[in-house]
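INTERNAL AUDIT FORM
Audit reference: QA-55
Scope: verify that the stored structure record matches its stored sequence.
Auditor: D.O.
Record contents follow.
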Amino acid sequence: MFALDSRLQQDTLPIGDFPLCRLLLMKDAHYPWFILVPRREEVVELFQLDAEDQRALWQETSELAEILKDTFGADKMNVAALGNVVSQLHMHVIVRRRDDAAWPAPVWGRHPAQPYTDEQITAIRDKLRLVLTGDFRFIED
């Protein structure tokens, strides 16, 4: 049975589900920073997914990155799977702008996380409801 890593539970807000991945929002208002987690048990590395799930992960990651780039006006999209702190396989999909708090450096450890206000979270969810359609299902607030 799929279970989200406790660190991801602590550091993110659930948004919804693609056919394969759970979509999460990092609790850091410096950047629109999203995480995709394949809903598969005990998967640490990309190669541990079967071929179909690997394709689905790349498709969902690419689709999300394109949607976020347009929706949030990115200058650059950062997409990465590191897993040095949280071993559960997850993809970071981060909207970067030339005027963001860390540009052009990586976002990790650059600044302490800035919490979102309730209004900011609502605004992000509302934006995503307009663009995430089809097979995506939102988790109700």
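Auditor finding: record pair retrieved intact. The CA atoms of residues 23 and 63 lie 12 Å apart.
Action required: none
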